[in-house]
Give the backbone structure.
Amino acid sequence: MTAASMQGSPLALPPACPPSLRRQAPEIARVTNVRGQPLHVSTAGLLLAAHQRYQVRVIPPPCPDGDKLTISLAADEHIRPIGTTQEHVLGDGKKEYVLTFATSRLLRPIPAQSQVSIVLNHPRWGEYAQELPVVIWPTKLNTIVWALSLVASTIWAPYLGQAAVHDGHLRPLPELVRKLTDSKELGFITVGATIGVAFLVYAMSWVFQLCTRSDS
Amino acid sequence: MPASLEQLESSALERLRQRENPFSSYVASLDEEQRYDVPERLAEQRRDINGIIDLFRQGNRPSQIIPILGEAGTGKTHLLASLKRELDNDQQLLVISEDFPKERDPADFFLWQIVSLLLGRKKTSVQILSRLSNRVTAALLGETIRRLSPSGRLRLVPPRGFWDWFGRKAGIAAAVDPSLKKVQDLLDICGNERFPEALPAFWDIGLDRDQVYEAVKDHVEEAESADADGFLRKVFYCGMVLSTVFGRREGLEDFLTGGFNDSPDHVAGAGDLTKRLLRVLLEIFAAFRIPVMIAFDQLEDFLRAGSREAEKELRENFCRGLIALTNAVPNLCVLLFAERGFWFNTVLPSLDQFSTDRLYRDISLPGKPNQRAIDLPLNCNLDTLAAIVRTRVLPTLGDLENKDQLPALFPFNREDLSGVLGEPSIRSCLQQLCKRYSEIVFSEHKGPSPREIHESLTRSWDQHRLLAQARLEDITATDIPSLVDALKSWLDYWADHHLSDPVPWVKNDACQHGHELFGHLNVLRTRPRSPGLGIGFWLAEGKHRPSDLAAKLAFFNVKSPVVRSLVILRRDGTKALGGVSGEHFKKAENKGHAVRVEELTDDDLVTILAFPPWLKAANAFVAALTGIGQEVGPDALNDIGRERTKLLMEKVRKWLAEPAEEATS
């Protein structure tokens, strides 16, 4: 239904009506991936992945002042808008505004909570911000790197010290390399521990998500 | 006439004789059943009123006072009663005020009138409140859901067990999507007419009323301001949502019936709580396109008091209160049904300019020129009168077979109806029909007695004078030609019917020379081909006053003179002879013209204005009586004509007899 037809409808409210009855919120506000597919939703918010591009698609409310309504994206932590707002006219004549944004690389091992704010500047009633809480999950590579770093720092650091120093002197390089390549068990232990730690980090991420609750 | 029709008429008359006279109900009351409503009559006025209501239906508008004016017996109360019936549904709110206590604040009074109607147990009251609650809830709920993020929407549907809870936390589509779908369905019905019927089903499929109510309440708390108006809106809206979602009206009723007086200090301290609540109430009606009208029937009765001073005070209080209220509170349409004479002669003259501008201002309707009031016509045409007859007679015939085949005007004939058409109001038409009906149906006597005829004609004269009196304020120079015609018609009547024998003139002409508006005179000649006495109406004001006088004096300068002396009638008499007008007059006198200015009294003017329409009505009445075989002697009219206009005739005789120079000096 267009703004004009809403005005004529018996259920449509007149332009000047009490604040709580005004149509300020967008008719539809959704976040999709760049292919337009919907995202998963949890009680904590929309589930996004780090270092990815997404799109916010907004169909504004019927506006008595027509095209004067403007839409923008307010960037919160870990979110970066890309380009300007694109405007499309859908099959039923409604206008859809598409704003693209990217999530940051997210160096932390567990997810981060943030929000996408869609700001509608209504010419008559001023600014209205609609917030969509999101949970940004780090990439799998990030999790593995974190797990590996943890394991390496705990297992390999003492062993490296032991292999490199003998009687208070550094070993010659060929001897050091030979010593390191001889310890295959340690390699296996390292791989296993890394996988284990990676799963542990992943589990912690789930605990984070299960304990997080969105406010809006 | 076929025998069967004769039989039908005879059995119809027999049936009518067993029932009461359907024309005996000629005074309308607001609670009447409207058995005898004829929509064709006052159709234009109904259209105008509905047009105004539709303007208020568009949404926010400044309040407006609409005077609906008519003479006594023209159908004001009947119109209001029919509006009351027509508008008695949930599309608008019509409050008919039966009182206006002078000690009360108008806002307070109107608020209680509206609240009392809303909280009543009448079907319409329940429907309006329920419709309003449903629409407020639908609008608030729709906006609340649109403002919620997907995760927020999930809270409206409580999880159905541990795995459902876990699935939502984890973002598993199988757990999340059905709940989001239910909320989307709820949002979809918020913009639908079926909202009230569809809503209960959502509680059955898992939506939580408490969560929904809390979400709406949070939205209202967030959107509305913290001031007094915002507070009143919050409580009022939440009361309506409670009423729709839980079916509990107590909160809303308590609040509206005085609960708002227990509001927090910052609200109570803001003052004018009733006015604020009235504004909030009207705002919500306007938001949902439900016009609110308050009607006062018989304004003259509201403003009646024991003494003249008390009446004046009451009138001032009423007008000031009404104006102050309509200034302060938008979205209110006040319909004032009043007698035209009372409105123009009593209400408006006692008001200052500020009040007049607000109480009697232009009403703009689409496709129509602006008007300041809705005027009720004095009488009606033959078709409408025929419709009135059928509306009253057919139901009285009950289940008589073939009653539709009776003549359209049964039991009257065309002459009967033509005879009453000249009556000055629909009520007097009905009174005449009532009398005639009794004669036809209940008695052998076919017509009124000479005394009744005299009484009818006298009453008609008095009513026409009243009507003319109401026009006095509106008389301007544009009426000069019609006044000259009216005077001629009256003078002709005296001469043609030998009301005084002999009349002191032999020829009476309406002459025109020069200016198309001001250049009109009556000329009375005492000899057929000689110039005569000119009688002219000098009515122009302001810059046109001298031109009007000059146009009259110009009659002395025509090549073949028609006037030997001139009497110029002026409402303020010789006082008008100042400035340029005085110079014109002196100049004419110096030239030796016999000219004088006489005062045109209101009484004379009323006589001149009333005579032609009365004569027309009286002739129609006499013709109708003659039509039914009753002889009416010429004296019936002549006596009244002579008796009621003799004072003016004495003046005319005096003007004809006196030399002009003497009168002016």
